[in-house]
Amino acid sequence: MTKESDALCETEKEIMHATHRALVNSGYAALSISRISNELDKAKSTIYHYYDSKDALLLRFLRFTVDRFEETINTSIGDDPKQDLNHIIRTLLPCQLTEERRQLHSVLVTLSPQALEREVFREQFTEIDTRLATIIEKTVRRGVEADVFRDVDPTHAAEHILATIKGTMYSRLTTDREAATAAAKASLFSYIDSHLVS
Questions:
Q1: Which residues form the signal peptide (predicted)?
Q2: Confidence of residue 105 (pLDDT cuts 50, 70, 90)
Q3: How far apart (Å, rounded) are the C-alpha atoms in residues 10 and 15?
Q4: What percent helix, strand, coil does the chain show, rounded to 5?
Q5: d(CA 128, CA 168)
Q6: Of 50, 76, 77, residue with least CA distance to 64
């Protein structure tokens, strides 16, 4: 499947990275095309050449961000469904967040409240959840078909795993409960061993 980021030209990719920096440095409330152009070190007209509004830019930026998550997950998926599922969990809930990963997670948390009242953002976050759930579901389904996992409903298992991951990601960035991530991850590994593995 062709990703949105695959179709971006070099200037658009530069705009995506500049948007990322502007969001991390200023937050959504203070974000503007001017701030993004400052991070880009190019005129605002460069941005408006590709995007006719801040919202249009942010919606493309969300797709760009989730492409990066998906690419990180998919590059290490192999032939062992259990190990692949563990890899997905470790990728989305690493023991230590690199600065880049913290920024990626922060961007999603920063923009997610926009989905409460704005349909275009709700649609985009729906797509993000669907894409992540699909990766997990396909991995569980492979495990069921290979008799590595029990005959469980892959959709239900994927939704449970994704909900735990998302809640933990949000808590990690918005609270000081440092041990919660390790506990949630251990709980997911326990769930895989006790409820999925044949």
A1: none
A2: confident
A3: 9
A4: 75, 0, 20
A5: 17
A6: 50
The single residue listed with the structure tokens 């669907």 is 130
| DSSP code for 183 | H
Q: What b/e readout covers 58-70, taking b as 16+ CB neighbours within 10 angstroms?
A: bbbbbbbbbbbbb
Interior/surface letters 75-105, b for 16+ CB within 10 angstroms, e for the rest: eebeeebbebbbbbbebbbeeebeeebebbb
Whole-number Å distance between alpha carbons of 73 and 178: 24
What is the pLDDT confidence band of residue 98, given thresholds at 50, 70 and 90? Answer: confident
Say if residues 164 and 188 touch (Cβ distance below 8 Å): yes
Which residues on adjacent β-strands are paired with residue 197?
149
